[in-house]
Amino acid sequence: MEGLLLEPTLYTVKGMAILDNDGNRILAKYYDKNVFATAKEQKTFEKNLFNKTHRANAEIIMLDGLTCVYRSNVDLFFYVMGSSHENELILMSVLNCLYDAVSQILRKNVEKRVVFDNLDIVMLAMDEICDGGIIMEADSSAVVQRVALRTDDIPLGEQTVAQVLQSAKEQLKWSLLK
User: Can you spell out the DSSP letters for the chain?
Assistant: First the structure.
């Protein structure tokens, strides 16, 4: 084979991870089961990735055949991984969206403790950005808007039964307090 031409694909992201300043996983999602089949392989890769990046002053690294872009904060490291032939600018836009969305959700207080306190919303943000390796959204404000929906703003037909009951309880409580 003279020139290996790869077919274009929507599956650009192989994984996203948030690690603490000791290299321990806070949150990670891997989308390609062929790359890291087991949790042990994932942990080994994360440890290796952290050891290579925690003292470096760069934004990108090639590791184990993957292109990894990363960004650090006070005590957190944000990573987005793609294949070795993936466009680094696309991966960087996903990383910036993830970091900016988490920053907006946590009101610019991006620290380990605060991320743990709001882990459910951060997980939702990660799911809104990337689904199965396909980039769904790269605009952080749109991601924040989707994960921070209040039940008051959702039309009645689109609410779940639990949301409708909760809304009815609140309305009844406020009508009795008047």
Answer: --S--PPP-SB-EEEEEEEETTS-EEEEEE--TTT--SHHHHHHHHHHHHHHHSS---SEEEETTEEEEEEE-SSEEEEEEEETTS-HHHHHHHHHHHHHHHHHHTTT---HHHHHHTHHHHHHHHHHHEETTEE----HHHHHHHHT--GGGS-GGGS-HHHHHHHHHHHHHHHHH-
> What is the rounded average pLDDT of the residues 7-31?
91
Is the pLDDT at 2 greater than 50? The verdict is no
CB under 8 Å to 45, separation ≥6 — which residues?
Answer: 36, 63, 64
Q: Which of 94, 171, 100, 96 has the alpha carbon at shortest distance from 137?
A: 94
Q: How many CA atoms lie within 13 A of 81 on its CB side?
A: 24
Apex 88 CA angle, 85 and 93, nearest 5: 135
Mean pLDDT of 94-121: 90
Domains annotated for the chain, with CATH where assigned, are 13-174 (3.30.450.60)
Both tokens of 105, joined, read: 């959700």
